[in-house]
Amino acid sequence: MEYRDYYKTLGVERSADEKSIRKAYRDLARKYHPDVNPNNKESEAKFREINEAYEVLSDADKRTKYDQLGSNYQQFGRNGGGTGGFDWSNWASNPGSAGGLGDEGDVSDFFTTMFTNGRAGGRTRAPIRGKDVEQPIEVTLEEAFAGTLRILKQGEKTTKIRIPAGAREGTKIRVAGSGEGGLAGGQMGDLYLIVSLKPHPTFHLRENNQDLEMDLKVELYTALLGGDVTVPTLNGDVKLRIPEGTQSGRMMRVAKRGMPMLNQPEVMGDLYVRILIQVPTNLSPEERESFEKLRALREPKA
């Protein structure tokens, strides 16, 4: 009787934990499931092998027994014993042992000897949960600032999706049960909407994804003499005091006028305003004369 390497069948290490074994099984079972590969005998056979391996490795008692057998079987081979001559009597199931894969079809002699005392039966085809699906969703900066709703249509099903205030580039929004359909009665997977922010003509996010930055054109006279200017923000205009003698390129902070924090909308980032001084053009003769006088006043005396 041929030994079955169930770890190799699922493509996992012998040290694999329950989660890794379950994931490997689901991935392979989905690939070879008869519902996905109708009338494919090779896939059906592979699917039975996968289920048989999972039947053993997902059960703590069966896995312990299997691991004990594995080390003894390998030791027997290293000592020169032929694999066909291995003494299975010490490992075969006792009468009354339960288990099996039932509706999956014939199981291997190895499994029957080890775990069912010569009988297969009991468990029907395991349902497989549908795959999770990711899908991009584009929102404006204003929508990300205040939060918004989207309508998701999937066939006859319509779902309202809430985009939370403070959503960022890459924010994932889970829509339960809207992914791929399951197999053999398995649950639907989930849909994950991946937020993408549309470029904004005025504002852009800083690296911390909470502070905003913008450029603001300021008249030369205001930069020279100081004064108030109006600054647009995502929740209304504010006044900003420009100090006398402000240089072009200076960055000024407007507190709590940035983006809200995701899941904590009361925590606000700041807005940073870069001052860009506008030099007047198309001067009138009077204006030019005035600027000439100002330049003369600033020039060093001979």
Describe how the helices and strands are arranged:
Blueprint: H1 6-10, H2 18-32, H3 41-57, H4 60-78, H5 109-116, E1 133-139, H6 141-146, E2 148-154, E3 157-163, E4 172-175, E5 191-197, E6 204-205, E7 212-219, H7 220-225, E8 227-231, E9 238-242, E10 251-254, E11 260-261, E12 264-268, E13 271-278, H8 285-298
Parallel strand pairs: 1-5, 7-13
Antiparallel strand pairs: 2-3, 4-5, 6-7, 8-9, 10-13, 11-12
Helix pairs in contact: 2-3
Explain this structure.
The N and C termini lie far apart (110 Å). The protein has helices spanning 6-10, 18-32, 41-57, 60-78, 109-116, 141-146, 220-225, 285-298, and strands at residues 133-139, 148-154, 157-163, 172-175, 191-197, 204-205, 212-219, 227-231, 238-242, 251-254, 260-261, 264-268, 271-278. β8 (227-231) and β9 (238-242) form a beta hairpin. The chain is built from 8 helices and 13 strands. The strands form 5 sheets. Strands 6-7-13-10 form a 4-stranded mixed sheet.
Q: What features would you highlight for this structure?
A:
alpha+beta; 8 helices; HSP40/DNAj peptide-binding domain; 302 residues; Helix Hairpins; 3-stranded mixed beta sheet; 4-stranded mixed beta sheet
